[in-house]
Design goal:
5-stranded mixed β-sheet; 45% helix; alpha/beta; 20% strand; 7-stranded mixed β-sheet; single chain
Length: 325
């Protein structure tokens, strides 16, 4: 007589055979929580709010997914990590950064875009500087983070003033190093973005030579590795929804947002409120038509021999948050 347990074992073996090894692995993978690696920087305001509130972690929990958070000093090393497969998702980076990542052969998926915030980055000089206009930068040493939005702002501002990038001496510096070099007079001008811009304006004697108004739109993009985007659109939909919701909350509640971010960023609330006022935080899907300026940025960097090859800014994948898989 065959025991009930023997029948159960035979049934299980037959079922496994029918499902195949791939299904068994998939079942095992589902049982284990997946870790999503998210990279961000200090200027990643909406991501910083989500991290402080724990909101995104909670929303991803039903997908059996946990987050690991990784901070970077600027956008270029962040996307380099994404390209190398050391991250799955990148919080917002300036519009210039994906151009460099594309030139390095990165397979990127654009997840979301923040609407333009041109005044959220600027070219600064000390208040007592003899420099009065962008044209006065000729032959001067200018500090900024390589590949950041500040990099393109400088190129575009110089072009508008009848100069080229070759007319200045570039000093590639992280925001922290740039601030130190600027304050001790090691550079003549500093190109930087918020909240570092607002901090400098409130804490030091500075003047704005030019911001991005009429020169550089300064749109910020959220990205993912294309392999991850194809595998986990469910995660990206949650991320997109939370970013969109948080962007509206920050603009509708400026004082509360500043108070929340103050201990996270180590800046006073008034500085943060000033910085946030210049950012749109309007999160929207990325469409091909919106990448027009990306091509101008890419062409400008290539013309200055800062990119190793020409790229097609449209040669990227675009995530559609409204599509269900």
């Amino acid at each position: 007589m065959t025991s009930h347990s023997t029948i159960s074992r035979r049934t299980a073996i037959a079922t496994l055979g029918a499902l195949g090894a791939g299904a068994v692995l998939a079942q095992g993978a589902t049982a284990r929580p997946a870790t999503v690696r998210l990279g961000y920087q200090k200027s990643s305001t909406l991501t910083a709010v989500l991290k402080a509130q724990g909101t995104l972690d909670k929303q991803l929990a039903p997908l059996n997914t946990t987050l690991s958070w990784h901070e970077f000093t600027s956008g270029l090393p962040l996307l380099e990590a994404l390209n190398l497969g050391n991250l799955d998702i990148s919080a917002d980076v300036a519009d210039t950064v994906p151009v460099f990542a594309q030139a390095a052969g990165a397979e990127l998926t654009f997840v979301a875009q923040e609407a333009p915030s041109p005044a959220a980055q600027a070219i600064l000089v000390r208040e007592d500087s003899p420099l009065k206009s962008v044209s006065d930068l000729k032959g001067k040493k200018v500090g900024f983070a390589k590949a950041a939005g500040a990099h393109y702002l400088l190129i575009a501002a110089l072009e508008k003033a009848g100069l080229s990038f070759k007319d200045v001496e570039p000093a590639y510096l992280t925001p922290a190093d740039g601030r130190a070099a600027f304050e001790r007079g090691a550079i003549d001008a500093w190109v930087v973005w918020d909240p570092f811009l607002a901090a400098a304006q409130r804490q030091a004697r500075v003047r704005v030579l030019a911001d991005g108004t009429g020169i550089a739109s300064y749109q910020r993009y959220y990205l993912a590795g294309t392999r991850f985007a194809n595998a986990r659109p469910d995660v990206l939909r949650v991320v997109y929804a939370e970013l969109e919701k948080t962007g509206k909350w920050v603009k509708q509640n400026p004082k509360e947002a500043a108070a929340l971010l103050s201990p996270v960023w180590g800046l006073d609330a008034a500085t943060i409120e000033q910085a946030n006022a210049r950012r749109s935080y309007a999160v929207r899907p990325v469409v091909a038509e919106a990448l027009t300026e990306q091509q101008r940025i890419a062409d400008a960097f290539f013309a200055e021999k800062l990119l190793p090859r020409k790229i097609n800014a449209l040669d990227v994948a675009l995530f559609q948050p409204s599509l269900k898989s």
